[in-house]
Specification:
Distance between the termini: 37 Å
Structural class: mainly alpha
Shape: extended
Number of domains: 1
Helix content: over 70%
Length: 73
């Protein structure tokens, strides 16, 4: 590979697995916990994490999530 970022992206067969591997190599326990919840399909745990994160930043998770969903549609 010649270091070209586009060539590197083409070589990645499973982008989701590639991203998960990078996150798992990170020694941050929060990331590790999120990856574990995602692997277990713990949507309730992930939602609770998001709600707590938004609350700590003075934001309303439900409002922000609805705006995000409207933007994606």
């Amino acid at each position: 590979m010649n270091g070209n970022p586009l060539e590197m992206l083409k070589a990645i067969k499973n982008p989701k697995q590639f991203a998960m591997n990078i996150i798992q190599k990170n020694s941050n326990p929060i990331f590790n916990n999120l990856v574990e919840m995602a692997n277990k399909n713990d949507t309730e745990g992930l939602k609770k994490f998001g709600e707590n994160l938004f609350k700590q930043n003075g934001q309303d998770f439900d409002k922000e999530f609805q705006e995000f969903m409207n933007m994606v549609k």
